[in-house]
Amino acid sequence: MVANILLLIPLIREHKFNRCAIIEKLYSKIQGKEYSYGQLFDVVNERNKQMEYYNILSASQEKGMVNRDDLNLDIQFERSNINTYKIVRKGDYVIHLRSFQGGFAFSDKLGVCSPAYTILRPNSLLEYSYLSYYFTSQRFIKSLIIVTYGIRDGRSINVEEWLNMKVVIPSKEHQLHTLNVLKRIDDKVENEEKYATCLSNQKQYLLRQMFI
Fold this sequence. Notes:
By secondary structure, this protein is of the alpha+beta class. The chain has 6 helices and 10 strands. The chain has a 4-stranded antiparallel β-sheet with strand order 2-9-6-7. The longest helix has about 40 residues, at about 170-210. The chain starts with a helix and ends with a helix.
């Protein structure tokens, strides 16, 4: 069992490394039409004035927007202020504060987030989540240098300038192909991580039984 866990850990790391390399390759030589980001996204500012939503979302580098409760962080906030929070809908992209990590997180959840975040809603030119992988790539992160000011881990991305930047968008068919390739890799990594967690839990259980 221990041997299986030790074998799985480097395998998972290798798959994650390969995933990053494949993302860079898939998005580096795209044939399509050039658009500004402003032609692909609307900046939306829906507030939770009616207190419709209470699940607070936070940005994570690997998982995009996640429920804050799942992060196991003790973050204090006033529940009464949740009406000032911004509504995030499924399919939105969120510009958060960690610009040194890219600063863009995709959301497949409905909820609310900090008023400090900028919410981007894509139009019909983009397939669901197509740019979520690109926004984590080194190619994209490096492109932000020209619209990033001040401290890199602060609110330093100039959104208005970024909206004027250009990106090549392929056909819907090509977008779907790219997504299918990357989702298969994600599924493989996720299954291996779950298996490793199960083995680790089983190991801990057996160790506890030894000392009963």
